[in-house]
Amino acid sequence: MLYIFNAGGVVMWPLLLCSLVSFYCVLERIIFWRNINWHNNNTRDKIINNYLNSSESFLNLLRSDNTYPLFSILLKAIKFDNCSAESFHLALSSALQSEISSLKKHTNIFSTIITISPLLGLLGTVLGLIESFSFISLGEASANNIKVTGGISEALISTAAGLIVAIASLLFSNYFKIEFQKELSIIQEFLVKFEIVRTEKTQIV
Question: pLDDT tens for residues 55-94?
Fold first, then answer.
């Protein structure tokens, strides 16, 4: 593996950096979405029950995990619980917008890596071919076969490495985009339900 890395030339170092950054972002997002899915399956249904039964237990639940978007949104909006339905709706919408960035975290990083990795691979290809041609001398090509093939090897390895990093990052980026769209729909549906419950509670009181 080390031999392949060294054979890829100088562009392998920025490609290694891209792969490490991508790996970190993927790992962070996997943990993030696993936590969200766990809350969706285990605590989401408790929110409305706690809201109806006890304001203290409701607030404690919302403060239990600030990485869960629904908790963060409701914790920001509940400050306007005594306001009108229109004001509370605006508070929920504003809180939802503030959470979008956390749901789409690392999107720009993935886009940059997906774009730049193949370009770095292409740069390695050009550098490798330039190196190969520099060893070719008319009438003496056979004497430089090893150096010529080494330059071609560098070109192919760097191209392959750039494509591997870009493809892997693209697959995970698209997966996280799907998770974002799914979670956004879940949040919007729940917030509508919460507003209805709040309106009914207000009317009863």
Answer: 888 899 999 998 999 999 999 999 888 888 899 999 999 9
Higher pLDDT: 99 or 157? It is 99
CA distances from residue 194 to 19, 38, 201 in whole angstroms, order as listed: 42, 20, 10
Cβ neighbours around 85 below 10 Å, total: 11
- Dist CA 54 CA 24 (whole Å): 40
Give the Cα separation of 192 and 198 in Å (integer). 10
203 Cβ contact partners less than 8 Å away, ≥ 6 residues apart:
none
d(CA 42, CA 44): 6
Q: What is the DSSP letter of 98?
A: H
Percentage helix, strand, coil, to 5, in the chain? 85, 0, 15
pLDDT tens digits, 169-188: 999 999 999 999 999 999 99
- On whether the CB atoms of residues 117 and 169 are closer than 8 A, the answer is yes
If phi over 0 gives left and psi between -120 and 50 gives alpha, with beta otherwise, what is residue 65? beta
Choose among 2, 20, 13: nearest CA to 127: 13
d(Cα 153, Cα 53) in Å, to the nearest integer? 69
**CA 118 distance to own-chain centroid:** 19
